[in-house]
Design goal:
- The structure is a homodimer.
- Chain A is an alpha/beta fold.
- Chain A folds into two domains: about 90 residues, Rossmann fold; about 130 residues, Rossmann fold (3-Layer(aba) Sandwich).
- Chain A is built from nine helices and eleven strands.
- Chain A has a six-stranded parallel beta sheet, covered by helices on one side. Chain A has a three-stranded parallel beta sheet with strand order 3-2-4, with helices on both faces. In chain A, strands 9-10 form a two-stranded antiparallel sheet.
- In chain A, helix 7 links the parallel strand 5 and strand 6.
- Chain A is globular and about 50 Å long.
- Chains A and B meet through helix 5, helix 7 and strand 6 of A and helix 5, helix 7 and strand 6 of B.
């Protein structure tokens, strides 16, 4: 097995983006800036927000953090987003999901101005992606593309299988890789697919985003397949200080005696996502400058 | 072979929609209305526009036809669309494509208000389709779904292959059938797919939208496959008065000795498209009433 580690890619992209940002600022532009809204105190969400915050700091981006209690009113969030939409010093707006149940997640994310939707989740952005137009590519699919690029894995004419049809990974991933330029033949499998093996056994590249550990093992794949594991699952583990460990959707160890190339978890796709958010934020600043 | 003729479906849907429209008007609502813009005098476009016009008349819809010479200025089209966007008596706006080369087709279609984009081609609409939200489903994919429904052809858990990745058929078709409720496992093939047979030989349902006659023949399919032929190609035919005949993308006759179910051309998908446009226009009127 070849391990497709992403730490090295993250480092490379971060260095490049940092240099781009410095030169951007040297030219008299304001530093790119990201506003992050966090509701409640879910530990995973806290971690994600902290990671974004730290990435901004390392890159020299401005960041504005907004925190609300669990019982915040929807209208208060909408009012803040409305204000941020109008602010000239904000390039990207991100609402950390999930939101509490009494809040309409769709309504909130759709209220973010299209020009600042650096997560790329709004219908307009997704539509542009689907139509092959310039857009903010959702961060995880964008990160997967960077991994394929870094490891020289071609997609044109290849059999790509995406397992999972979520709005934030599976569907945009499929849309992206079927576009001209990528030119893959893409199949999207879902929970109703009777036999995943029918598709995976013959695939060149398999992208797994189901949120279920053990979705894919080596017996389901060709001996030279490329496996991209998007899953991040917490598994109880008493031997760890924090009481859990992270595993992906792929049975990583089953690939050890194969010729497959596999992204690890942790150390894989997850590392790319924050960096892609930073790239989208830079892009937004670059479009907005003058 | 079983011929999946669509004349009978068109008749049924037209009857239903006519009744719905009558009852809609009886309740004191204005008749649904469609504005159609045609530039130049391409004979195929003329036919399409006439078909839409006639469908409106049969259903009791209002229709506004706008015709421009080939050398119309982009700004004049934009001004008209802007006016139509604002008019309370217009539910749907359609610009017949293709437009002359000096006109930015994207700019024109994107200027149509999202609420009146009954063709469903705008990024916002496509994005909503992709995200599984309420939207105007593009007419051809919507028509294909009606054919599958009428002939009791299930999609859940089925292997669906879409050949062609156009923005108006292939991509929205794939997005639609992979949504919850349809639950198909969808593969999108394109011109870079090395061997179509790898996918078609095993497929339950094959939807062909390449614009190339002879894309699919029976030797590439299972003996019980369902074949939906979206293609409409003009083939020179001196024996016909008009000098051509219409054929699909599928080699229809090659299926004669199989158990496959195949839509004919003409008499197939094409018949559905106009009716779906009318359904979208009705839907728009229904949303707009109060």
């Amino acid at each position: 097995m070849k391990r497709l580690g992403c730490k090295i890619i993250q480092g490379k992209l971060e260095k490049e983006l940092k240099e781009k940002t410095e030169s951007f600022i040297m030219k008299g532009n304001r530093a790119p800036s990201l506003a992050v809204i966090l509701v409640g105190s879910d530990p995973a969400s806290e971690t994600y927000v902290r990671n974004k915050h730290e990435a901004c700091s390392r890159l020299g981006f401005l960041h504005f953090d907004y925190r609300f209690d669990e019982d915040v009113k929807e209208d208060d969030l909408l009012a803040l987003i409305d204000e941020l939409n109008g602010r000239a010093d904000v390039d990207g707006i991100l609402v950390q999901l999930p939101l509490p149940k009494h809040i309409d997640e769709k309504k909130i994310t759709n209220s973010i101005s299209v020009e600042k939707d650096v997560d790329g989740f709004s219908p307009f952005n997704v539509g542009r992606l689907c139509l092959g137009e310039e857009c903010f590519i959702p961060c995880t699919p964008k990160g997967v593309v960077e991994i394929l690029k870094y490891y020289d894995i071609p997609t044109a004419g290849k059999k790509v299988v995406v397992i999972g049809r979520s709005n934030i990974v599976g569907k945009p991933m499929a849309m992206l890789l079927m576009q001209k330029g990528f030119d893959a033949t893409v199949t999207v499998c879902n929970t109703r697919t009777p036999s995943l093996k029918d598709y995976t056994l013959d695939a060149d590249i398999i992208i797994v985003a189901t949120g279920r550990p053990g979705t894919l093992g080596s017996s389901m794949c060709r001996n030279d397949a490329v496996i991209i594991d998007v899953g991040v699952n917490r598994i109880e583990d008493k031997s760890r200080e924090r009481g859990y460990r992270l595993v992906g959707d792929v049975d990583y160890h089953s690939f050890e005696d194969t010729e497959c190339q596999v992204t690890p978890v942790p150390g894989g796709v997850g590392l790319m996502t924050v960096m892609m958010l930073m790239e989208n934020t830079f892009e937004s600043a670059n479009r907005r400058k003058k």
